[in-house]
Amino acid sequence: MKNRSAGDILLNTYAWCCALILTSAVLIIAGYLVFHGFSTLNLDLIFAHTPVLEALLLKKQVFGGLLPAIAGTLALIFLSISFALPVGIAAGVFLAEFALPGTRKILGLMFDIMASIPSIVVGLSGFAVTIFLHQHFFKQLYPCLLISALCLAFLVVPYIIRSTQIALESLPSQARLTAPGLGATRAQNLWYVLIPMAAKDIVGGVILAIGRSAEDTAVIMLTGAVATAGIPGSVFSGYEALPFFIYYTAAEYADAAELMKGYGAALILLFICGGLYAFAYWIKKKVR
Amino acid sequence: MTNTKTKIKVDGLNFFYGAHQILDAIDLDIPAGTITAVSGPSGQGKSSLLTAFNRLWENIDGAKATGRIWIDFGKGLEEITKKDYGVHHLRRKVGMVFQMPNPLPMSILKNMQFPLKLAGISEKNMVLEKIESALKQAHLWEEVKDRLSNDARRLSGGQLQRLCIARTLVLQPEVLLMDEPTASLDPVSVEKIETLLLDLKTRCTIVMVSHYMDQIRRIADRNLVLSDGKLSASSQ
Amino acid sequence: MLENDRIPKLCLQIAAWGCAALTFGVLAFMAWLSIPVLKASNTVQILTQPWLPNQGQFGIGPMILGSLYISVLSLIIAGPVSFGGAIFIRITRPGIAGKIFQHLVEAMTAVPTVVYGFIGVFLIVPFIRETFLQGSGMCILSASIMLALVIAPTMILIFSQSISNVPREYTIAAEAMGATPAQTFFMIILPYAWKGILTGLILGFGRAVGDTLIALMISGNAIAFPGHILDSARTLTAHIALVTAADFDSMEFKTLFVCALTLYLLTCLGVFSARVIGKRQRSS
Q1: pTM value?
Q2: CATH of domain B6-234
Q3: Alpha-carbon distance B206 to B168, whole Å?
Q4: Is residue A35 in a domain?
Q5: The total number of structural domains that make up chain A
C-alpha cells in the first residue's frame, strides 16, 4: 500500500519545480547584480573626486558621484512622507473610528482605486497641473522637488490609510473603553490612548510608503527628476534621484565606467529598500 | 465473559505535542464489538489518543506518536503503525467523528458522497444504496430523504452530528472513533445518538471519549480513565 | 482642542474626503484634458488607429495592444509559477525549505522595479537576442519575463493566503475520511479558495498593466502594431513616459491624456472585479 498517490507525487513535483524556478531566477539576478556591482561599492562611487567632508558639508559640488542622487532620494522620502503621514493617519482614523458604514464603503472603494492607479498616471497628472499653473498663475513654477514629493505623497497615502485603519480596528475592545470610562472625549481617547497603541502596526504601512517613495521612478520622471542637477538647493528646483539615475544609465550610458556606476546605484537602492524591508520585519516581530 | 477477539492492540504508545509528553507508554487491548469509553480530566490527551488509531496525528502540526498499534480487519492483527502501511486506506476502515460536527460546505448528498468519491466508488446505484443505508443506520434517513440537495450546514446540531456519523458509516468501517460525540447536543439528540451507538456495536468496535459518567454507564462496556498520561481501567 | 470632538472630527473628515476627492479629481482631470482629442476624431478611431504623428494619426491602438500582450504574457508566465509556489508553501510544506522560500518571496516584494528593469536590459535582453537570433532582444517576451518576476511574489502571497483561509474543520474532516493531500487540495481547498486565487490574478494583471519601467526599458518601444512575441512593442505606460517630451499644447501630447484615462479606467475595472468576486465569496 502506498502512502503517496500519483496525484500527490504530481502535485508536489509541480510545486517543487515552481519554487525552484522562482528561486533560481532570483538568485541569478541577485548574483548578477552583486557580481557586477560589488566592485564599484566604494566612496568614489558616491563622492567621485570630491573630498568626503567637504561634499557632505555642501562646500563643494560632487560631479560624477552618486551623492546628489542619494540626497535627492532622501529629500523626496522626507518631503513625501511629511505630506502623506498626517493626511494618511487622519483619513485612516476617520475610516476606523468615525465613518458610518455607507461612508466607509464609498471611501474604501476610493482608496482601493487610489492604491491601484498606475504611477505614470499620477506623474502625468502632476505634470499637467504644473504646466497648467505655470501657464496661468506661477510663471516661475516648473517640475521640481516639491511637485514630485506631492505626487509621491498621493501615491503612498493609501498604504498609510490602510495600515492605520487595520491597526485601529484590531485594537482589543477593552482598550477602547478605559479612557472614556474616565471621562475622556473620543478625540482625547484617540490622541492619548488608541493611536499610540496602534503606532507599532501603523509603522509597517509607513515603512512600505518610504520604500515606495524611494524606488518609484515613473512619477519622478515626469515631475522634476533630471540627469544632472547637483544637490537640490530648494524645493522648487530640479533634482537627481537614484531610481532615475539607474533608468537613465541603462538608456544612455556612454562607456563601461558609467555602466558600472549604474550597477553600483542599483545595489545601493537595493540595500536601501532591502534595509527598510528588514526594518519593517524586525518591528513586526517585536510587536508579536 | 464471552471470548471476544481483540480488535485493537496498543503497545507502548507515547504521544507528544512538541516537547511536551502527554501519553506515557500506553498499553491497551480493545475487544471487538464493544464500546470502550475513555474518560478523565480535560486536556490530558483523550482526543490525542483517538488520533493515534487512525494516524490522524500525522496531519496535526506539532503532534508526534511513537509505539505500535495493531488492528484486526478480518485477516488477523495488522500493524497499522508500520511506515508503509496505507494510511489513507486505514482511515476508510477507521471512521472518526469529531467533537464539533464538521459538515463539508456542500449539500447533504455531496457530504455523504465524499468518502465514496475518495475511495473511487462512483457507480450511481451503488453510491445511492450505500448512502441510504448509512443514513438509515444513523437514524437520519427519514428526516433528510426529501432534502438531500439542501446545504448540510442548515441542519440542526443533533442532525449534523448524526450526519457526520452517517458520513463515516458509508464506507462500513470496522472501528469507530468518537470524540465526545454528544457534547454539543440537546438531551433528545443525545438519546438518539446513544441508541444509535448501541445499535452499531454489533458491526463496529467503538472507542469513545466522553465526560459524562452517566452516559458511560448507560452504553459503555468498559471505561478507561486517562490521567497524567496513563490509562487505568475502572470498574464496569 | 481635543476637549470636544467637533474640530478633530472635522479635520479627519477633510483629510479622508480630500483624498477621495483627489482620486476622483485625477480621473476628472484626465477626462477633461482628453476632450479635445476625443472631439477631433471619434473614440473608436483613437483606440484602434496606429500612432503616426507625422501623418496626423494619433491612435493609441498599438499601445493598447502592447500593454495587453505584455501583461497577459507575464500573467501566463507568472500565474502557474505563483500557483505552484503557493502550493509549495502551504501544501507540500517541506519543513525549512518552505519557510525559506516564503521569506524569499516576501523579501522579493521589496525589490525596486527599476532594478529589475536594469538587470533585464543587461541580462535578459542579450539572452533572448542570442537564443532566438532575431531582433534586438528588446521585445514583448523579454519584458514579460521580467514583469512576471515583479508580479509573482505578490500573487504567491495572495494565493497562499487564500489556501490557508480554508477552514481547518473542512480539511481535517476530509483527511479523517482518508483523503490524500492531493485529494484534499482538489476537492476541498480549491473549490473554497478559487475566488481568492482569481482575485490574485486580477490584482497581478492590474499591476502588470500599470507598470512603466519594465516595459520602458525592455520592450523596445516600437510604434508599430506588435504581431509576435519577439516584436518590439510599446505600452500605454511607456508611451506616456516617452511622449512627455513633446510640446504640451500639441495634439500628440493631448493623446497622452487618453492613454492615462484608459489606464485609469482599466484600473477601476480591476478594482471593481476584485470586489465583486470578493463579495460573492463572503456571501456563500
Answers
A1: 0.90
A2: 3.40.50.300
A3: 12
A4: no
A5: 1
